[in-house]
C-alpha cells in the first residue's frame, strides 16, 4: 500500500484497518476500559521510542472493541459512515484541535467517551441518554481510535481535501 498523501486517504486507510481488525468475540465495556488503561499507562509511564507501535495497536484494539460491542447491542456503524463523520468533523475542527495536545489530548477525549459509555450501561441496562444517543459515543470512540492511529503513524497533519 502506498503512503497516503491527504488526510482523507489516511483516514480511509486507518478506518479500513479498524474494520479489518474486528473479530467476532465477546466484548464488554470493561474490556474497552482495560485496553484504554493499557494505552494510557503506555503513554504516561513508558515514553520510550519503542512505545509507538504498541500504542498504534492499542488504538486499533479500542476502536474494534467499541464497534464490536456496539454490534452486539444492535448499534451498527458502517465503515463508510465512520469515514464520512471523521472527514466532516475534521473540516469543522481543523488540525490544531488535536495537534495542540497530541496523544495526551486524544487519551483524555477517549477517556471521557469511555466514562460516558460506562455510565450509560451501568448494571448492563441501557439508559436513555439525555444529550446524544449511545451510538454517537461508540462512533466517537471508533473515530478517536482512527485519529490515534493516524497520529501515531505521523499522518494526521496531512492536508485535508
Question: The biggest beta sheet, please?
Answer: none
Q: Count the DSSP helices.
A: 7
Distance between the ends: 20 Å
What would you call the structural class?
A: mainly alpha
Number of strands: 0
Taken as a percent bin, the fraction of beta residues is under 5%
Query: Residue-averaged pLDDT, rounded?
Result: 90
The percent of residues in helical segments reads 55-70%
What general form does the structure show? globular
Taking pLDDT < 50 over at least 5 consecutive residues as the criterion, the unreliable ranges are none
Radius of gyration: 15 Å
Tally of domains: 1
Q: Secondary-structure element sequence? A: HHHHHHH
Task: Report what the structure shows.
- By secondary structure, the chain is an all-alpha fold.
- It contains seven helices and no strands.
- Helices cover about 70% and strands about 0% of the residues.
- The longest helix is centred in the middle third of the chain and has 21 residues, at about 50-70.
- The chain is globular.
Amino acid at each position: 500500500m502506498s503512503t497516503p498523501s491527504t488526510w482523507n486517504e489516511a483516514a480511509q486507510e486507518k478506518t479500513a484497518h479498524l474494520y479489518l481488525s474486528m473479530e467476532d468475540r465477546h466484548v464488554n465495556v470493561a474490556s474497552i476500559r482495560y485496553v484504554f488503561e493499557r494505552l494510557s499507562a503506555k503513554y504516561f509511564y513508558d515514553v520510550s521510542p519503542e512505545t509507538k507501535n504498541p500504542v498504534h495497536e492499542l488504538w486499533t484494539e479500542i476502536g474494534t472493541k467499541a464497534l464490536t460491542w456496539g454490534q452486539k447491542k444492535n448499534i451498527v456503524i458502517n465503515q463508510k459512515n465512520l469515514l464520512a463523520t471523521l472527514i466532516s468533523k475534521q473540516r469543522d475542527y481543523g488540525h490544531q484541535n488535536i495537534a495542540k495536545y497530541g496523544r495526551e489530548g486524544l487519551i483524555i477525549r477517549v477517556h471521557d467517551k469511555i466514562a460516558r459509555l460506562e455510565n450509560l450501561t451501568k448494571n448492563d441496562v441501557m439508559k436513555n441518554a439525555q444529550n446524544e444517543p449511545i451510538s454517537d459515543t461508540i462512533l466517537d470512540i471508533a473515530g478517536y481510535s482512527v485519529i490515534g492511529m493516524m497520529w501515531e503513524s505521523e499522518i494526521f497533519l496531512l492536508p485535508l481535501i
